């Protein structure tokens, strides 16, 4: 199924441990996975199993203890901190359980925050990109609103718009429906499926079976070990 698509993520024997008194705490154990362009996959598992740690490594927010990671054809191990930051800002969009919107900034100002860290995008493009992503998430008239004026479902749509504004190759989503009721969760998943159909690659960490079952692939994380559970 992936013969004509580009490999976005390739992870080989990725491990992560944290120093503590006595023996190191091993959180991830030789994880292997490939994510291809236009994939939409879920990573499920109990709390503390290593899901968020893996997502932090994939998103270049932390570094592995060992193993190999290729992101968008770049060998992450060989990159400087500046190069990693640039790769992250240009290729990855983040969506979190907590919407992380700044309350005293308008929707448009919140959406444009990632653009300030991307030197390849001219300020003259900010307004058009903002308009485009608000249309994509179904909130074209909310640019001048403030977060407190929006419902929880609307705030999560704005956080997704913010993640999309740099036109990243991949969205990394950490429990994106965790703070939403079932109706808003279904609406957010419908939005993700629409974005995926348009070419956006999506990786979702979730405790929700409904969310996982909407994805093409499901990976199971247990005690730091990752295995493929389902492939559509």
Strand content: 25-35%
User: What does the main sheet amount to?
Assistant: 6 strands, mixed
The coarse overall form would be globular
Report the radius of gyration as a whole number of Å.
18 Å
**Average of the residue pLDDT scores:** 93
Can you summarize this structure?
The protein contains seven helices and ten strands.
What does this entry look like structurally?
This protein is an alpha/beta fold and 232 residues long. The protein is 30% helix and 28% strand. The strands form 2 sheets. A 6-stranded mixed beta sheet has the order 6-7-8-3-9-10, sandwiched between helices. It has a 4-stranded antiparallel beta sheet with strand order 2-1-4-5, with helices on one face. Helix 4 (126-136) crosses helix 5 (152-164) and helix 5 runs parallel beside helix 6 (182-197). The longest helix is centred in the last third of the chain and has 16 residues, at 182-197. The radius of gyration is 18 Å and the shape is globular. The termini are close together. The model has no long low-confidence stretch (mean pLDDT 93). It holds the Pfam family ABC_tran.
């Amino acid at each position: 199924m992936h013969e004509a698509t580009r490999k976005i993520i390739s992870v080989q024997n990725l491990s992560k441990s944290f120093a503590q008194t006595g023996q190191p705490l091993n959180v991830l154990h030789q994880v292997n996975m490939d994510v291809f362009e236009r994939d939409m996959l879920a990573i499920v598992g109990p709390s503390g199993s290593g899901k968020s740690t893996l997502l932090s490594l994939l998103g270049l927010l932390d570094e592995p203890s060992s193993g190999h990671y290729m992101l968008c054809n770049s060998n992450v191990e060989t990159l400087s901190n500046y190069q990693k930051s640039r790769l992250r800002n240009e290729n990855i969009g983040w969506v979190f359980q907590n919407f992380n919107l700044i309350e005293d900034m308008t929707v448009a100002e919140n959406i444009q925050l990632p653009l300030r860290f991307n030197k390849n995008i001219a300020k003259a493009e900010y307004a058009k990109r903002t308009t485009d992503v608000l249309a994509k998430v179904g909130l074209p008239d909310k640019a001048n609103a403030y977060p407190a004026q929006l419902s929880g479902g609307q705030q999560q749509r704005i956080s997704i718009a913010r993640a999309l504004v740099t036109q990243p190759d991949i969205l990394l989503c950490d429990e994106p429906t965790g703070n939403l009721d079932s109706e808003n969760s279904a609406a957010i998943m419908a939005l993700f499926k629409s974005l995926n159909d348009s070419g956006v690659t999506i990786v979702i960490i979730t405790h929700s079976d409904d969310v996982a079952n909407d994805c093409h692939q499901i990976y199971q994380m247990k005690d730091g070990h990752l295995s493929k559970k389902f492939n559509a």
